[in-house]
Specification:
Elements lengths: L4 E4 L5 E2 L2 H11 L4 E4 L6 E3 L5 E2 L2 H11 L4 E3 L1 H4 L12 H6 L1 H6 L6 E2 L5 H9 L4 H10 L5 H11 L11 E2 L13 H89 L11 H11 L7 H15 L4 H20 L8 E3 L3 H8 L4 H7 L3 E3 L4 E3 L7 H16 L7
Antiparallel strand pairs: 1-2, 1-3, 4-5, 4-6, 7-8, 9-11, 10-11
Length: 413
């Protein structure tokens, strides 16, 4: 019994005739066909007269347009078909044997030429190069709208994203769209909107990535700055410790020299050596002072002495002194972290908070002046010029203030 349809063994498509099977083979390169008793449906929409070849296609049409009424005209178009090859006239075959032999030979497959400008426009809409090339080729390079229409019709094809390959010097006619003009227009608008949203999402994703990179670089810079400040603080502490040890050794040498001079004078006068218990420290201290070399006080020493004087002058209110130290540390820290910000380098002397915490305490303003602040505008502001900002001085000030806050015996001895 002859079949009523042809079935593609590669994709399962049902075809009404050998001509349709040949057209399907040209479009998809499928070659595995067999006769089938399964009928190809012919469901015609009563609203727009669109024919549907299967229940799946009619359901898709209903989903797109809302049309639900179909007329089954399948029986009107059913004709038995056969895959038997038609007989070929022997005389025609003998006259052109080379043409018959050429069909058995594999022809060279090439990528078809398409309109480059249209290809770029389709790629900018979000379609892949293979899909765009395929659409332009099978739509005959008729234009952007024709290519989009072809994509709409074939977006569910398994090979939609494969680069088309055609025999050299072969031209394939474009299939006719089966959608109505209204459906094509709506689908085209949907694809353009989808491409636009995809592009916007990609831009947002790139912006998020750039923001993450800026945050990462910012954190790395802050960490590098913190490490640099920590190393500078350790260096200053080590320098202070070395200076104190050097001063201690110098005092020991002076003391030893004074003892030797005193013993020598007693020996010359014929007096017995002085007992260690009878030695009086006060004269030695006075002589010691006379032998200490005079040198200018460093910034760190001036700051330390200023803070010690501030605590001595207000020793009855330890909480107020500690609050003043913490406020000064805040001022110094802000300038050290933001040397280019003028708001951190300018202090209004009449500010109530400043007066309560620092200005009213003797030694508070003097400490800021040692750090480089100057009175301007008739004494209305304390201002630290940018070119006078010295990180070493600010780091020393921070170290001295930190020591004064944490050391319970600071300024007591």
């Amino acid at each position: 019994m002859a079949g009523v349809s042809l079935k593609c063994g590669d994709c399962g498509a049902l075809l009404r005739s050998v001509e349709e099977a040949q057209e399907h083979a040209d479009l998809t390169s499928h070659s595995n066909f067999s006769e089938s008793t399964e009928r190809v449906l012919n469901l015609v929409c009563t609203a727009c007269s669109k024919p549907c070849r299967s229940k799946t296609e009619s359901d898709l049409h209903t989903k797109r347009t809302g049309h639900t009424e179909f007329v089954d005209k399948t029986s009107e178009a059913v004709k038995p078909i056969s895959l038997e090859a038609p007989k070929v006239d022997a005389t025609a075959s003998s006259e052109n044997p080379s043409a018959a032999a050429s069909t058995d030979q594999n022809e060279e497959m090439v990528v078809p030429e398409v309109d480059k400008k249209l290809l770029e426009e389709l790629e900018s809409m979000g379609f892949s190069t293979a899909r765009a090339t395929r659409a332009l080729h099978y739509s005959g390079n008729a234009g952007l709208e024709a290519a989009v229409n072809w994509i709409v019709e074939h977006e569910n094809d398994a090979d939609i994203d494969q680069m088309p390959l055609v025999p050299a010097n072969t031209k394939i006619e474009a299939p006719k769209p089966s959608l109505t003009p209204e459906e094509l227009k709506a689908r085209q608008q949907e694809l353009r909107e989808r491409a636009r949203k995809k592009k916007e999402e990609e831009e947002k994703r790139m912006e998020i990535e750039r923001e993450k990179e800026r945050i990462r670089i910012g954190k790395e810079l802050l960490e590098a700055k913190r490490v640099e400040e920590e190393n500078e603080r350790k260096r200053l502490l080590a320098l202070r410790k070395a200076e104190k040890e050097e001063e201690k050794r110098a005092r020991e040498k002076i003391k030893q020299k004074l003892e030797e001079d005193k013993a020598e004078r007693r020996r010359r006068l014929g007096l017995p050596p002085e007992e260690p218990s009878a030695a009086k420290p006060s004269p030695i201290v006075e002589e010691k002072k006379s032998f200490v070399p005079v040198r200018p006080a460093t910034k760190a020493e001036q700051m330390r002495e200023c803070l010690r004087s501030l605590k001595q002058n207000h020793k009855e209110d330890d909480a107020k002194v500690k609050r003043a130290f913490q406020t000064l540390l805040t001022y110094v820290g802000n300038v050290a972290r933001n040397p280019d910000e003028e708001k951190f380098r300018k202090i209004r002397l009449s500010n109530q908070t400043f007066q309560e915490r620092v200005g009213s305490l003797k030694g508070g303003i003097e400490f800021l002046e040692i750090c480089g602040f100057e009175k301007i505008d008739g004494g209305e502001f304390l201002f630290l010029p940018r070119h006078k900002v010295e990180m070493a001085v600010l780091n020393s000030a921070g170290s001295e203030l930190d020591s004064a806050i944490k050391n319970p015996f600071f300024g007591v001895l």
